[in-house]
From TrEMBL, chains A, B:
Residues 129-148 are annotated as: Disordered. InterPro entries: MoaE_sf, Mopterin_biosynth_MoaE. PANTHER family: MOLYBDOPTERIN SYNTHASE RELATED. It comes from Paenibacillus alginolyticus. This is Molybdenum cofactor biosynthesis protein MoaE. Residues 132-148 have a biased composition (Polar residues). It comes from the Bacteria.
Amino acid sequence: MYEITHDTIDAAEVASKVNLPNHGASLAFIGTTREMTYGQRTVLLEYEAYIPMALKTMETIGEELDNQWPGTLCAITHRLGKVAIAEASVVIAVSSPHRAHCYEASRYAIERLKQIVPIWKKEIWEDGSEWKGSQTGPWNPLQTPQFE
Amino acid sequence: MYEITHDTIDAAEVASKVNLPNHGASLAFIGTTREMTYGQRTVLLEYEAYIPMALKTMETIGEELDNQWPGTLCAITHRLGKVAIAEASVVIAVSSPHRAHCYEASRYAIERLKQIVPIWKKEIWEDGSEWKGSQTGPWNPLQTPQFE
């Protein structure tokens, strides 16, 4: 259910992992490389991970979802290496019997991923680049997830 | 961006319609036929629509999203006819520059669809069947969408 890959992510394939007869709702969150961020043009993003811990923390997220929203199912695939504009860096698929839990659990999963999964990204602009501690920017392990 | 079909829905194809360079987040909501509902086993669902008005109200939802969350993009495909267990009856794809709006807009879109789009479903069980006014069950046009 948890994968890290250097290949293009097939969102439908990730979503299919959580397709269960009793789950009437599923949500696929797709995080893609955005061209403009506060007026700065990104050319591409490059991701690195400490893979064993990244997989382990993704599993932790799945366990947390199951604790908070029993019966939800979660699959996560994160891409590493260079990710071009509009390509997916992460796909999180969540399913549950009813949609309310599905939305809550999906939102939690992406915020939690950015908080605890050791994946770093390098933003590459036309005129430079910078490594960031997590996909959300300046990384602070004490910071709680921002849900706004 | 708005489609009604008797064929299987390709969720990835719907999601691809909202993939824009400046949109860093997209969400595909997939509503599927659930086998068990409050202890009753569904065999399949059958959908009917008043198609011109269904397409028009789907467009209205897109306009409402753009008003409330400017810059969000929305595509909706709804299936008609018989939909087997675990198959998708509706896919709603929403994208936006940042993910907070994406989640809010996606949630709004599915609730609003069940409220204003004239699509009826017949629940077919092992021992009978029943037409329902909307996918959520007893239909009341005065009822506001339930977001819980």
